[in-house]
Design brief:
The structure holds 2 protein chains of 2 kinds. By secondary structure, chain A is mainly alpha-helical. Chain A is built from 14 helices and 2 strands; from the N terminus they run αααααβααααβααααα. Chain A starts with a helix and ends with a helix. In chain B, helix 3 packs across helix 4 and helix 4 packs across helix 5.
Chain lengths: ~325, ~250
């Protein structure tokens, strides 16, 4: 707890330091990483804590982004309306998708969540009134009553939501509910036969995660003042899943570490050319995925508990 | 207390349960015996609610429970143990029992308050732990327990829900003599507070514990009665007990 608070203090101060060093780009980049960290953390709740392999988490991030984005585009610019609306819509979507897909298990669950997310991807692609496949450009970020156009202010808002979500997940994991979903993940039939209504717990877990994913979505829309239909594409669900696996499945910091590592890696590969590598493979920088793949393979083979597991082992 | 009326369950063309009617009286230990494949575990599954019967009715304390889900039956006072230990292997022994106590007591849709602060829950789990003979192992991972200890924990999970009727599916399967004796003692101890439906192959244990015995052969109950009557029943001897009892 002390460590976490120290870390939080560090991250509160960070953007001013970056601003002083004239690196406003990195303030914005850090906001983006934190939004993805939030999205990956929400997926980790379903995947790691709940043991449900959902391959459609982008649907909830996308629902939050589109609902908040459309509200802002239509003139409801108040963040106090647009953001809760986006989160509520994502939760409702998760309730609907969850209620239908949680009837299935294993590979069927993976496929049905994927199918729902893809349906939504095609739906927003055909919404010509809101940009269709070109995406929805917003005139401004949502307005919470202070200037969110300021990168540092936006960063602090994102940090606030990420820290709040992590603390909430920590509390949840150690609550009665957390124990119940852990029992269901470990042995669903046994959990039922000691009296836990497994389906209800799983659905609740799915909806909470969907809402948190929606929160990441509304922030993402404001961050870039733009919503691209690709945030609903299945590869986006896959990216979130890779972040969780990299960071640590079922670990509190898994989503954060995974998002930081993946986005950091992509950035370094794309923006910092390595001379000899460029001489060998001239356009390697357009294929950041290869580098990411190598890192993912290394982590899966040598640190199956992810980066968080590795750090925890060193601590112990 | 428990009444089965004309229960039927088919798997493909095989009748695993074929028109089973049975009554368990409150306070008794009612044993169900029968050769392998007689449909004993299938019967337990239907009573506990993990399998839906094709036909027939189940009444528990006068209430029709045929359509209740497994978790609802637990809350009605009916719990089961499994033939192959079904425990939370990556939980500690104490957490296994505490989870079962938690499932019974109060809502678990509580997202904020730390579970660790609920002393009552863990105190109850600890006293059950002692009764199971697992004291000193509370912090151990359940998956690391010996076979016999896992079986004891398995029965403990059912007891932690404080059932009025407990279904025990071969609690002594695969146990050595010493472990069997301990399990026998445990069942003998708990029978004063809970009615027991016992499926068991260990005839020695069955005849020592049971007030009444039902014999299941090919999905049918061919006889029900006191141990002495079952021992003497010609049809039962022919179908199942055979030389084991005759000698």
């Amino acid at each position: 707890m002390k460590k976490s608070l120290a870390l939080l203090a560090l991250f509160v101060v960070l953007p001013w330091a970056l601003e002083a060093a004239d690196s406003l780009f990195y303030v914005s980049f850090a906001s983006r990483v934190m939004i993805y960290a939030l999205a990956a953390t929400s997926l980790n709740l379903v995947l790691g804590y709940g043991g449900m392999i959902s391959f459609g988490h982008a649907a909830f991030v996308g629902t939050g982004a589109y609902v908040a984005g459309i509200l802002v585009a239509e003139g409801t610019t108040s963040a106090w309306i647009a953001w809760p609306a986006g989160v509520a819509a994502a939760a409702a979507m998760a309730a609907l998708i969850g209620a239908l897909s949680l009837r299935t298990r294993g590979v069927y669950f993976i496929m049905i969540t994927l199918a729902f997310a893809q349906m939504m991807f095609y739906l927003v692609n055909s919404m010509k009134a809101y940009g269709g496949d070109e995406g929805l450009t917003l005139a401004q970020r949502a307005d919470p009553g202070f200037d969110l156009g300021n990168e540092v202010a936006f960063y602090q808002v994102v940090l606030f939501f990420l820290a709040g979500t992590l603390y909430g997940l920590h509390r949840l994991a150690h609550s009665r509910f957390g124990r119940a979903i852990a029992a269901i993940r470990e042995n669903e039939e046994r959990a039922e036969s000691i009296g836990f209504p497994a389906q209800r717990f799983k659905l609740a877990c799915f909806v909470i995660a969907g809402a948190a994913g929606g929160l990441a979505g509304v922030l993402l829309a404001s961050h870039g003042k733009y919503v691209n239909p690709n945030i609903l594409h299945w590869t986006q669900s896959g990216t979130l899943m890779i972040m969780v696996i990299l960071g640590g499945v079922g670990r509190l910091w898994g989503g954060v570490l995974g998002a930081a590592l993946l986005l950091g890696l992509e950035h370094v590969i794309a923006d910092y050319p390595v001379g000899w590598l460029a001489a060998l493979a001239p356009n390697y920088q357009q294929h950041a995925g290869l580098g990411v793949g190598i890192v993912l393979l290394t982590v899966v083979l040598f640190a199956p508990q992810g980066i968080a597991g590795l750090l925890a082992r060193r601590d112990a | 207390m428990l009444e089965l009326k004309g229960l039927r369950k088919h798997f493909g063309g095989v009748a695993a349960t074929n028109d089973v009617s049975l009554e368990v009286v409150a306070g008794e230990v009612h044993a169900v015996i029968g050769p392998n494949g007689a449909g004993k575990t299938t019967l337990i599954g239907q009573i506990a609610g993990s399998l839906a019967p094709d036909k027939g009715e189940i009444f528990f304390e006068g209430r029709r429970i045929t359509a209740l889900a497994a978790h609802e039956r637990v809350h009605a006072g009916l719990a089961r143990s499994y033939q192959i230990a079904s425990i939370f292997r990556r939980f500690s022994v104490l957490d296994n029992l505490a989870a079962a106590v938690q499932a019974r007591s109060g809502s678990s849709f509580s997202f904020w308050r730390p579970l660790a602060a609920e002393r009552v829950l863990f105190d109850e789990a600890r006293s059950l732990l002692a009764e199971l003979g697992l004291s000193g192992k509370e912090a151990q991972l359940a998956g690391a327990l010996s076979h016999g200890e896992q079986r004891a924990l398995e029965v403990g999970l059912a007891l932690a829900t404080q059932p009025r009727l407990v279904l025990l599916d071969e609690p002594m399967a695969g146990m050595g003599p010493e472990e069997s004796r301990r399990m026998l003692e445990l069942i003998a101890r708990v029978r004063s507070r809970v009615t027991v439906l016992l499926v068991e192959h260990d005839m020695d244990a069955v005849f020592r514990l049971a007030d009444r015995i039902s014999v299941l052969v090919d999905g049918r109950v061919i006889a029900t009665g006191a141990p002495a009557a079952i021992r003497a029943n010609a049809e039962v001897r022919k179908a199942y007990l055979g030389d084991e009892v005759a000698s």
